[in-house]
Design brief:
It is a single chain. The protein has 2 domains: about 1-120, Rossmann fold, CATH 3.40.50; about 125-230, Arc Repressor Mutant, subunit A (Orthogonal Bundle), CATH 1.10.10.10. The strands form 3 sheets. It has a 5-stranded parallel sheet, sandwiched between helices. A 4-stranded antiparallel sheet has the order 6-7-8-9, with helices on one face. Helix content is about 45%, strand content about 20%. With about 240 residues, the chain is α/β, with parallel strands linked by helices. The protein is built from 10 helices and 12 strands. Helix 6 (about 150-160) packs across helix 8 (about 185-205). The structure holds calcium ion (CA). Calcium ion (CA) binds near residues 9 and 53. The site of calcium ion (CA) has 5 residues, from loops.
Length: about 240
């Protein structure tokens, strides 16, 4: 999941970026309205956190231009406590939710989770054979046993599970995992996938029943192209 934070207040932007990265999102930060507009026009985001008082182009204009491009990206606006008219204008212009400054980080995180969940158009829970992925808290279980994954491993698994049965390129995974100025090499992606496979294998290995039902969880490497999380049903037919 990739989030754009459009906020010119450095302290707020830093706090938001740190909190959302810790929660496992890839985060980009734009400090002017025109920078945010350019980023939104060239890249797909899962959520925009938008301060309305931005230099060069107002938050409202950024939002209007986004909706004029027919983007359905969920938008959470940040407004001043006394900005009732701002909130009304923002919601009328197509924002999905708002928070008034100052706000508590846990509240922001809860709203971000709710909006990104809505934006994916998928249910809260994705089942793949014995694997269960909960988008709300990003938890993973196999046959009811929880899988202990790092934020990056969860990020990789999330993309693969949501696109199960389809090819996912390494570049797409890099894109999904990093914000601007962060580096994750293609080699690092290989390491995350390797660790994921090990963890999935050790979790499934003792559960003969679900494997016999074709519940094997397999991440296939498509040489030179990327990875594919096979759908367990497809495995059963092999
Ligand atoms: Ca501002």
């Amino acid at each position: 999941m990739r989030i754009l934070i459009a906020e010119d207040d450095e302290l707020i932007a830093d706090a938001l970026t740190r909190a959302l990265k810790r929660a496992g999102y890839a985060v980009d930060n734009a400090t002017t309205g025109s920078e945010a507009d350019a980023a939104l026009a060239s890249q797909t985001y899962d959520l925009l956190v938008l301060d309305l008082g931005l230099p060069r182009m107002s938050g409202i204009e950024v939002l209007q231009r986004l909706r004029n491009r027919k983007s359905t990206c969920p938008v959470l606006i940040l407004t001043a406590r006394d900005g009732v008219q701002d909130r009304v204008t923002g919601l009328d212009a197509g924002a999905d939710d708002y928070l008034t400054k100052p706000f508590a980080l846990p509240e922001l995180e809860a709203r971000v989770r709710a909006l990104t969940r809505r934006g994916t158009g998928q249910g809260r829970v994705v089942m793949l054979g014995p694997l269960r992925y909960d988008q709300a808290d990003r938890s993973v279980t196999v046959d009811g046993h929880s899988l202990d994954l790092s934020a990056r491993e969860t990020g990789v698994l999330e993309v693969l599970v949501l696109r199960a049965g389809r090819l996912v390129s390494k570049e797409h995974l890099v894109d999904h995992l990093c914000g601007w100025g962060e580096e994750v090499s293609l080699n690092a992606i290989e390491v995350y996938v390797h660790r994921l496979r090990k963890k999935l294998e050790s979790c499934v290995e003792n559960r003969v029943e679900s494997c016999a039902e074709g519940g094997r969880l397999r991440i296939t490497t498509v040489r030179g192209l990327g990875y594919c999380m096979e759908k367990p049903d497809a495995n059963a037919n092999l």
